[in-house]
Amino acid sequence: MRRRAFVGGAFAGLPVTGAFARPPKVKSGDIPKRTFGKTGEQLTVIGQAGGRFDLIPFEEAAAIVRRAVALGVNYFDNARAYGRGRSEEIYGAVLPEFRKQVFLTTKSYRRTRQEAEEDLHLSLRALKTDYLDLWQIHSVSEMEEVEKIFAPGGAIEAFEAAKKAGKCRFIGFTGHHDPRVHLEMLKRYDKYDSILMPLHAADPSYLSFETQVLPIAVERGLGIQGMKNFGNAKLLQSLSVRDCLSYVLSLPIHATAVGCTTLGQLEDDARVAQQFKPVEAAAMSKLRERAKEIAGPALEDWKRNVPVG
Hints:
single chain; 309 residues; alpha/beta; TIM Barrel; eight-stranded parallel beta barrel; two-stranded antiparallel ribbon; 11 helices; 10 strands; globular
């Protein structure tokens, strides 16, 4: 399922006052920022992610990136695995002009030092930059991967070396399969700068990252990023775009990655961010209850499958 492609989808419930009534105009530069954990960096609360750019033509994706910059978005998420490097090339076609004003991140799915260093070389070339703001170990899903990452010659050595050499300013890890694996990654290493995990209103009902991992990330002072805000659009059966993003941004996180594939989606998300007000505890509980109706492996098929009875 894909997100709605028209501008104003998040505002469908607002009253119409005339034949030409439109959603509130998106203003450039009004997206709130938060301090990204112990890094001290100021990130916009929403960031453009490149994970779905393989679904659209190159120039359409590049136009979304340009518009995100124009709106004041400064957090740009990517990964070497996205489109086999194509998503990084899209960023490389747009972002070098704005390099000093954006916080540029990418990831490596490789689990050995040599392979991760090869990925880093390819990423820097595709992104047309000589350094990353944040380089993350991508999509750690199984305990066996944790063992490989921290074994002699494992990927963690590449990340430490890159940070020391100035090829990346900060390092972290990501994943969306199993909160136990996130907890093991945190147990093994205390020098991460960041963490990325799925966070949304249905997450607390099934293999929850919000309840198991988020409190530890907060305690450690990590830069915390969310993803899967809309449950790959499945949550939009029960909640609005505004509901979904407001829930995530009301958690103790610093930014969330939104995988926009149309300008309309980007502008919807930017409007919500610009108008964001923290959701009170009672309202958060109600959103969780509404999302609970569709929670579980059918919605979160990216998580470890556990029967829900």
